[in-house]
Amino acid sequence: RDAIPVIYDENETFEIGKAKQLRDGKDVAILANGDTVRLALEASDVLKEKGINARVLDVHTIKPLDVDAVCTCIDEIGKLITVEDHNIMNGLGSAVAEVIAEAGKGKLKRIGVQDQFGQSAPYERLLAMNGITVENIVAQAEALLK
Fold first, then answer.
1. Choosing a second label site near 120 at 20 to 30 A (CA), which of 41, 71, 74, 145?
2. Contact indicator for 132, 112 with CB cutoff of 8 Å
3. Which residues pair with 79 in a beta bridge?
4. pTM for the complete prediction?
């Protein structure tokens, strides 16, 4: 993979099963992991310019999932977007969908590779081919708010 932007300094600590909130917001929550965290942060900047405040969480651990953080987003915001750079099935999007289903409330848009056979291409092209882009995150956030 190509180099990716640095989000954390070298002294940052992580706790297994505890998401990190990187931005606060009240309109929509964007939950991402891995390299897609940078896209979530960029999307939150674009959304802010449009008057939409997006909470951004780095869900660096899917199992165990930080259910408390997801439930807080459901209770306080109710509109969630997951962003991942792999299949949306059995990943972050599915895990968050399960929490939403059990809570009986909330709306979710999952951004990632749709349930399809894998393809080969340079990384950034694969992201774009699968809608894993800042533009799509922004569009999905706007759709949730309509």
1. 41
2. yes
3. 107
4. 0.95
Please say whether the beta carbons of 57 and 29 come within 8 A: yes
Whether cis (ω within 30° of 0) applies to the bond prior to 64 is: yes
Distance CA 123, CA 22 (A): 24
d(CA 131, CA 119): 14
Give rounded-to-5 percent helix, strand, coil for the chain: 35, 20, 40
Q: How far is CA 15 from the centre of its chain?
A: 18
Kindly report, residue by residue over 73-86, the tens digit of the pLDDT.
Answer: 999 999 999 999 98
Give the containing element (helix H, strand E) for 110: strand 107-113
Q: Rounded to an integer, what distance in angstroms lies between the CA atom of residue 138 and that of residue 45? A: 10
pLDDT of residue 5: 84
Cβ distance 25 to 72 under 8 Å? no
